Amino acid sequence: MKYFLFCSGFLVFSTLAPAEEGPEISADEFPRAPATEPADALATFEMAPGFRLTLAAHEPDVTDPIAMSFDERGRAYVVEMIGYSERREAAACRVRLLTDADGD
Question: Global pTM?
Answer without folding.
Answer: 0.56
